[in-house]
Amino acid sequence: MKSFKSFIAAIAFMVAPLVHAHGEFFIHDAYARATAPGAPNSAAFMMLDNQSKMLKRVVSASTPAAKRVELHEHAMVDGMMEMRQIAQILVPKGEQVTLKPGGLHVMLFDLTQPLKVGEHISLTLNTADGHSLTKQIPVKSVMDGMQHHNDEGNHHHE
Ligand SMILES: [Cu+2]
Fold first, then answer.
1. CA–centroid distance, residue 2 to ligand 1 (Å)
2. Which of 3, 59, 104, 113 is least surrounded by Cβ atoms within 10 Å, i.e. has the fewest?
3. Which residue ranges make up each domain of the chain?
4. 148 vs 39, 143, 156, CA distance in Å?
5. What is 24-140's CATH number, 3.10.50.40, 2.60.40.1890, 3.30.360.10, 2.40.110.10?
6. Mean pLDDT of 38-66
7. What are phi and psi of 25, to 5 degrees?
């Protein structure tokens, strides 16, 4: 048993620096919403995965595909679901935060060209600690969650 434990410890010791070298903050399953010709805006969605020992704050984003990029959330305003800009997206240590239609998203304003299914765009996220993550993300057809007043099925109107 003792040698087995030291074997595991040796493996952990060898693997840890590699994991560190590959970064500890990840973007998974990212995509941008396809647009109709002439549509000025779109959005990008993804899962943020913080495997580090510290809180990560995404404070800005950019892409060559849009002239202006903002971090957005959806919130209830006077009984209506509206989206609004937020200063940062917090990802606690060891946790994942999902950006999805109808929730948090990266808003793409003034597209430089229509986003077509099958194409890829480059998206960069910047964190408060000065790191940037850039990914090529696919363009996908997405149900537009932005115009729905979705009742989640829990309310019961008589
Ligand atoms: Cu938005």
1. 56
2. 3
3. 24-140
4. 18, 10, 18
5. 2.60.40.1890
6. 96
7. -130, 120
β-strands 80-85, 96-99: how paired?
unpaired
Beta strands in the chain (DSSP E): 25-33, 42-50, 56-62, 66-77, 80-85, 89-91, 96-99, 105-111, 120-127, 132-140
Each residue's pLDDT tens digit, 7-47: 555 555 555 444 443 469 999 999 999 999 889 999 999 99
With bands split at pLDDT 50, 70 and 90, how would you rate the model's confidence at 122?
A: very high
How many angstroms separate the alpha carbon of residue 24 from the centre of ligand 1?
27
Which residues neighbour ligand 1 (ion) by CB within 5 Å?
Answer: 72, 83, 107
What does the pLDDT average to over 56-68? 98
